[in-house]
Amino acid sequence: MTAEYIITFDNTSSAIKAEQYLLAARLRVGVMPLPSQVRAGCGICLRLPEEQIGAALEVLCGNSIADNGVYVRTAAGNTYVYGAVDDRSDLWNGN
What Pfam families would the database entry show (predicted)? Predict the structure, then answer.
């Protein structure tokens, strides 16, 4: 299984606006509760497939939506593990 990414936000209003922009850009985005392992942002986050995270960050930046954090989500047995993405340069290049 390929990795997925989640984007966190400071408040629910920003998360909802972000979802609207990403859906308008025809990206596959899902809203989910903030995982207990992630201690950032409001109570919801957006989940995107690995191949769309770069485009999503560009859409959010272009619409002045500030994210609070980006995390990679990988399956580990019957659960998920989340890791903070501090260096986003590879994501912006579409890698």
Answer: Se_S_carrier (PF11823)
Would you say 39 and 66 are in contact if contact means Cβ atoms under 8 Å apart? no
CATH of the domain at 39: 3.30.70
pLDDT, one tens digit for every residue, the chain (95 residues): 578 999 999 999 999 999 999 999 999 999 999 999 998 878 999 999 999 999 999 999 999 998 779 999 998 889 999 999 988 777 765 44
Q: Are 54 and 85 in contact (CB under 8 A)?
A: no
Compute the distance between CA of residue 33 and CA of residue 35 in angstroms, rounded to an integer.
6
Q: In terms of residue numbers, what domain contains 49?
A: 4-92
Q: What is the spatial distance between Cα 50 and Cα 94, in angstroms, rounded to a whole number?
A: 9
